[in-house]
Amino acid sequence: MKRIVLVRHGESQWNMENRFTGWTNVDLTPKGQKEAYAAGELLKKQGFHFDQAYTSYLKRAVKTLNAVLDAMDEDWIPVEKTWRLNEKHYGMLQGLNKAETAEKYGDEQVHIWRRSFDVAPHDLPDDGVGSAFADPRYAKVPQEYLPRTESLKDAIARVMPYWECVIFPKLKEVDNIIVAAHGNSLRGIVKHLKNISDEDIPALNIPTATPYVFEFDDDLKLVKDYYLGDPEEIKRKQQAVANQGKAK
Is 56 exposed, middle or buried (0-12, 13-18, 19+ CB in 10 A)? Predict the structure, then answer.
């Protein structure tokens, strides 16, 4: 059996403040750190171990992965970081409060910006909050690849080449992989793995710091997928994610 575990980062400062984050490099809150460490403890308790880890360039995902591996005493495993696993770029929305934005533009429009498949917010200026163009993390990334905004479709087009060429083929060499990333980059991966339609993907909400396990047979065919943790708590966290973009 082969396994890939997806983990969305723990609560970030801007999650707590209900702000659009995207590529802005905000930190975890103390609650987010505890969530991430608890995810690692749960994985260890359930007998998981990992051979390889992947994460984004954004510290909320990096620190989540670090906390998970620390709790599992697996800090030593190889870790690869890539900008391709970054969160969806929210364009001109980055830094804005989601509820206040919904009051201004309406719940439906904000839901479209947050959850639709192919509608992107307006571009972020090159000197705007979270712009990648002056950030040293992306100095070696060709500028034509750096987004000023993204729809989920755009984010998936960025994520999937790395998934298909790097992460998934690694399962031919190892048995257990962990990917710590973001709500939308992980939604793209889940959409691919479960063949979720463009029409149904807006309803998928991935909870913070909750291990999402995908099991494959030796031919790398998906056998089953499931979250680790209390089902009621997982539902509560999913609903909290869904409610972030509402005015009230």
Answer: buried
